[in-house]
UniProtKB/TrEMBL annotation:
CDD domains: NAT_SF
UniProt name for this protein: GNAT family N-acetyltransferase
GO terms of molecular function: acyltransferase activity
Alphabetical UniProt keywords: Acyltransferase, Transferase
Keyword Acyltransferase found: yes
Cited Pfam families: Acetyltransf_1
N-acetyltransferase domain segment(s): 7-154
InterPro entries: Acyl_CoA_acyltransferase, GNAT_dom
UniProt keyword Glycoprotein, yes or no: no
Enzyme Commission code(s) on record: 2.3.1.-
Enzyme class per UniProt: transferase
Length: 154
């Protein structure tokens, strides 16, 4: 488990741009760099509907999470926070860093006035499916190669 005295989680800023870009490329390697840059800039310009968090240990970037507010998450869930992307570097997985990021996104979602968070992952990503379940996300359905999750914050 993590040693919380050396760990910090915060909202991403322009200062985090390079490490954010690097980790995005690890999570989504098929996405062109220009698109990553465009999406990072959009997130930095839209803090009321998009938010990104970084977790660090002794100022070393460990992982990130991108969240959004969706008006119709998965079409039937209504307004909700949504986990758009969630990444922890291989060496640091299964040590609590992902949970810290999810908790930051859930807190942000609640502060924005929403009572649930939705997420998804590819149906072959067993590690992500298990992680979602351990963090209280309930599988809602599977479609088009994805598993859809929802968690109530109330």
């Amino acid at each position: 488990m993590t040693n919380s005295t050396n760990i910090s989680v915060k909202k991403m800023t322009n200062h985090d741009f390079s490490c954010w870009l690097e980790m995005r490329a690890l999570l989504w390697p098929d996405c062109p760099t220009e698109k990553h840059i465009q999406e990072i800039l959009e997130q930095l310009d839209s803090p009321l509907t998009l938010q990104a968090f970084i977790v660090e240990e002794q100022n070393e970037p460990i992982g990130f999470l991108e969240a959004a507010i969706h008006q119709h998450a998965h079409k039937q869930f209504g307004q909700a926070g949504y986990i758009e992307g969630w990444f922890v570097k291989d060496l640091y997985r299964m040590k609590g860093y992902g949970k810290i990021l999810i908790e930051a996104a859930e807190t942000w979602t609640a502060e924005m006035g929403y009572e649930q968070v939705a997420s998804d992952t590819e149906d072959f990503n067993v590690g992500s499916i298990v992680a979602h379940g351990k963090l209280g996300y309930l599988e809602q359905f599977r479609a088009d190669g994805e598993v859809k999750f929802l968690k109530s914050l109330c």
